Amino acid sequence: MTTKHRLITDSFKVVKKAKRAGRREKRPTSPPPQKEAETETVREEELQKLRQFDLDWRFGPCTGITRLQRWERAKLHGLNPPEEIRYLLLQTHTGPNYKLSLWSEYPL
Q: Could you read off the pLDDT tens digit of each residue along the chain, which spans 108 residues?
């Protein structure tokens, strides 16, 4: 006499899940809009120009004053700072990344 091999499914009732009505199909995620990516690139370029201005020793020290004050002081002393920097500083950017110099976080 041979023994019958029983399966685990013989002990448990098979229950099938009901299909959901109105199931949504998976859609691939869309890439971020180009305008946001372009805006971030432009912003990074502007901040890089301002950092270069901070690192340029020809326009005097930059600790303890804002970038615009430093630009105006350099202009007053005839050091010919770039007009592009002044234009960037006079735009509506009021964040500390634009306003304060690279060294503003360090104590005097």
A: 566 777 777 777 777 777 776 666 666 676 656 667 778 888 889 989 999 999 999 998 888 888 899 999 999 999 999 999 999 888 866 777 888 887 777 776
Please give the Cα distance from 39 to 7 (Å, whole number): 63
Q: Which residues contact 102 (CB under 8 A, 6 or more apart)?
A: 51, 54, 55, 62
Let me know: does 74 contact 56? Beta carbons within 8 Å.
no
CB 88 within 8 A of CB 45: no
Comparing CA positions, the residue from 92, 74, 95 lying closest to residue 83 is 74
Helix (H, G, I), strand (E, B) or coil at 18: coil
99, 66 contact by CB (below 8 A)? yes
